[in-house]
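Q: My labmate handed me this sequence with no annotations at all. I'd like to see what the chain might look like in three dimensions before we decide whether it's worth expressing. Could you predict it?
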Amino acid sequence: MDYFDKVSLVDGPFFWTILGAGIAGGAFLLIRRSWRWVLSIVVAVVMASGVVAFIHWMLVNVLTVFPEDLPFDVLAWSVVAFSALALFLVRLPRSSWRGRSAAAASFVAVLLLSALQINSYFGLNHTAADLFGHNVGRIPELGDEFKKGASGSLRAWAHGGGLVRRASIPGTESGFKAQDAFIYLPPAYLVADRTQLPVLVLFAGQPGRPADWLTGGLLEPTMNTFAAKHGGVAPVVVVVDPNGSDTANTICMDSRIARADTYLSIDVPRWINSTLEVSADPRKWAVGGFSFGATCAMQMTTLHPEIYPSFIAFSGEREPSLGPDRQRTIQTAFGGDSAAFDALTPLILMKKQNYAGHAAFIAVGSADSEFSHFATELAAAARGSGFDIRQASVAGAGHSWAVAVQEFPSALDFLAPRWGITP
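A: Here is what I predict for the chain of 423 residues:
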């Protein structure tokens, strides 16, 4: 099982085998000595494009599973998979059992290739263990020895990196029911004096879950590397669920949908302060996220700068959203009250308030054209409102976890002086 868990989904023998098999399978489905088959291919691609377009429209505009349109690369590979299915079905009635078997194998190979390419684009699952949740499933609960008031050293930090634990953060004030949070405890937390450690609260994308920061975001190795450069000192990181399920979208606000803002601004900080031994200095707290999570992070800092004085935003949205139809978002969340919605959005808040003394790190993929425009507008607004801001663009990256993986170390270095962490 351990060997299987380590199989890479983004490189290595398995990836290249599937790549070769997918190309061969696609060639088998495409090549046939008949002009009519060329017409069949055209029809299959057109039909597949229509099916993908309809499903995409439903997911974004009707079911609001995704707040924004999916990237072109993802849609293109979905069309490839559906086209392969169509060609396989066309071959079935006219083929021998051997031909049917070969066509079925070819379709499966193309399907796996498409799935791997979509996964590679998003950068979410690096190994089989990530895909099936095996490593995350093995993470133990936060024990009493890590909680506030526990005395004595737990182990010498020099003998290893930090630890990751899981915990349930109750919505005592908000009534919100969240999925389990994940807590990274740096090496310095594993000794007696840990009251000076800063806090970083993180959110994943939507759809998504807190565990995405462990798989796609490579949280643990990134934090261990930072800690190793700073004598074992790093922030205590708490990855929180702002939505309640993988597909829900609370837009991180107190609205008709949920009291998500109350949960994130009252329940979460209260739990951290009462459960973990961390710095009580609010200047040593920050919040961050990817995609939806980045938007949520900006909301937390612009609405609650006294709690989260700095934010990290990787590929953030222009504003909180349930989908492309802005009025539908406002209607669903606030009964059509645009003023109530606007008053809680980062762009509006940054135009009205002064955030001098606060910090913002904004990064986006250079190939993510729509979100690059968002980042430019948000950065300009942040700079204009007084934020100490740092911007970054990841060459060639789309709307992918690659942005967070590449720029997270830079964001940590940017905030380290504010946290009192020096090399």
